[in-house]
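Hello, quick one for you while I still have it in my head. A protein chain has come my way and I'm curious about its shape. I'm sending you its amino acid sequence along with the backbone structure tokens. I'd be grateful if you could look everything over and explain what you see. Here's the protein in full, and shout if anything looks odd to you:
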Amino acid sequence: MTGERSNIISPAGFAALRAEYDALLGDERPKLVETISWAAGNGDRSENGDYIYGRKRLREIDRRLAFLARRMKAARVVDPAQQPDRSRIWFGATVELADEEDMRRTVTLVGDDEADAGAGRIGWNSPLARALRGAAIGDLRTVVLPAGPKEWEVVAVDYP
């Protein structure tokens, strides 16, 4: 995998970005514009809650749309199922790790926009994912965490 800071993403992750963009642009934003124009027609705008809130929410939506557009433009879609070297950890790998106390943890390396640590999906540019890149079963990797360095052993590597 090339590009340390490239925005690689799985096909499902890209579809989720696209779906959010389409929902904001095609559904939520037009309804909000309609509400704002209705509220503007009610007279005094300085004390009109619908108008004030609507304008604020419209700016939030426009910022989010711009962010999503930039992320999708920079995205490089990589299908983990097409990974040629399945013996090592690369994008899309599901990895079982064991620490010094033999506590097990399973993580999947996904794009930064898809990361959800609570669900075991860690971003490609996270410290743990960077440490695991290229590792094979049996390899030891040290990750520097805020609490100090922690060593993990790769127990299993799997791809979809």
In short: Helices lie at 11-40, 49-74, 127-132. The CA atoms of residues 3 and 76 lie 10 Å apart. The chain has two domains: 7-77, 80-158.
